[in-house]
Amino acid sequence: MSTSPDAGQLIALLQKLINAKNTIEIGVFTGYSLLLTALTISRITAIDMNKDTYEMGLPVIKKAGVEHKINFIQSQALSALDELLKDDANRGRFDFAFVDADKVNYQKYQEILLQLVKVGGIIVYDNTLWLGTVAMPEEFVKEELKPTRFYSIEFNKFLANDDRVQISQVPLGDGITICWRL
Ligand SMILES: C[S@@+](CC[C@H](N)C(=O)[O-])C[C@H]1O[C@@H](n2cnc3c(N)ncnc32)[C@H](O)[C@@H]1O
């Protein structure tokens, strides 16, 4: 479930390069990518519908001395993002967003994150290669992977044509797509 370490390393480096101060993370699980971000930057709004897994990893986050940087919101991601949008002060307030949950809604997250992340900021999506299945002929793909494969292909096409961002799809881990907000 956790983001792969090679992808995590690049994400932390990107955050440093743009001097990110305020970030959103969708999909926390036990907090691997969250910890990397918290060690790199100052404030994180972290959203996950499951608090138990966050609490499982919390002792490690506390040991690293970065818990105070995290505002954990237990919620469905879409409703938490909608809440953030209701406050005009949040528009363009974030430098960086990392999305690693609920692949079928990536396109909806993109529409909201484009309003929350400032021009010059970065949005990263995890699992955009979906175990390589996006490039496989459908007959070779396991049944259980097909629905998310379909959404991932649609999302990758959508991003390739989205002129509000410049993208780079990087084959690290399960594939991450880096979107630079234009
Ligand atoms: C792949 S894991 C995240 C891994 C994490 N980035 C890491 O590096 O450890 C996906 C997480 O997304 C959460 N999730 C799935 N669907 C969600 C949704 N619709 N809204 C909020 N969280 C969701 C799950 O509870 C799970 O903890």
TrEMBL record:
Stated family: Belongs to the class I-like SAM-binding methyltransferase superfamily. Cation-dependent O-methyltransferase family.
GO function terms (MF aspect): caffeoyl-CoA O-methyltransferase activity
InterPro entries: Cation-dep_OMT, SAM-dependent_MTases_sf, SAM_O-MeTrfase
Transmembrane segments: none
Record has Transferase as a keyword: yes
Name used for this protein in its record: caffeoyl-CoA O-methyltransferase
Record organism: Solanum commersonii (Commerson's wild potato)
Its EC number(s): 2.1.1.104
PANTHER family on file: CAFFEOYL-COA O-METHYLTRANSFERASE-LIKE, O-METHYLTRANSFERASE-RELATED
Any one of the GO BP annotations: lignin biosynthetic process
